[in-house]
Amino acid sequence: MGDQADEAAGGTWSEENSATFLDIGRYAVPEREVQIDTICGLIAAQGEPRSILELCCGGGLLAKALLERFPAARLLALDGSPKMLEATRAAVGEVLAARLETRLFDLASDDWRQAEAAPQAVVSSLAIHHLDGPGKARLFAGVLRMLAPGGLFLVADMMLPAGEGATRWAARAWDDEARRRALEFDGDLAGFERFRDDGWNYFSDPEPDPIDQPSTLYDQLSWLREAGFAEVDVFWMKAGHAVFGGRKPLA
Ligand SMILES: C[S@@+](CC[C@H](N)C(=O)[O-])C[C@H]1O[C@@H](n2cnc3c(N)ncnc32)[C@H](O)[C@@H]1O
Prior knowledge:
Radius of gyration: 17 Å
Bound molecules: S-adenosylmethionine
Number of strands: 7
CATH topology of the largest domain: Rossmann fold
Order of helices and strands: HHHEHEHEEHEHHHEE
CATH architecture of the largest domain: 3-Layer(aba) Sandwich
Number of domains: 2
Shape: globular
């Protein structure tokens, strides 16, 4: 870890953020297992993919699920954090790693979007909110260009609520979910307390970290449509988080 890693992550997400997220992610991500299953199920419903691209793979839970579910697929997993790429390789394990490639990248940059391979699916979980609105719209257009015809783009992320009441509701719903997960996993509230004390609940933070730039779900669906995606839809939503996406038209 060093300057190069900070630069790759846009100078914002640090290796300290990676360590914190690896520690509290299991409490902080609402219905994480359901989100992962939703993404895998939607890809399976399109047929067996040969190539999948994951943007910001983090600790590797989604990467592992994808490689297990799709035995014929190769996965290119990108992240700006060396610590996260190491965590992904460890989570996936030696056997599945034969079909995994990990690489450092900057989500905001255009260079990796010029890649020639055309994946059947591009996925990302809890990361695109690090881009501002125009950055998201540019990313969506770039992903459409990269995908194979008929390919899926599926995003799991935190959404900006459309109003103050909805923000207060999302704040409470996220706390409730983190509390529930801590009790379910550990039988105590220590995990929830770490989530709360680290200020992880964007919706209840009066001065949210500028590293987080969520957009409304409505805006993101509109940017997908504007980019040229078809079948744009929302597949799951809870506590201010959603899984949404679209399909690249066949022609
Ligand atoms: C909240 S974590 C989510 C990790 C994982 N996808 C998950 O759902 O558990 C955000 C991830 O995005 C990565 N990240 C943040 N900003 C980035 C950037 N500009 N370029 C590349 N990776 C970035 C971080 O390194 C981290 O792995």
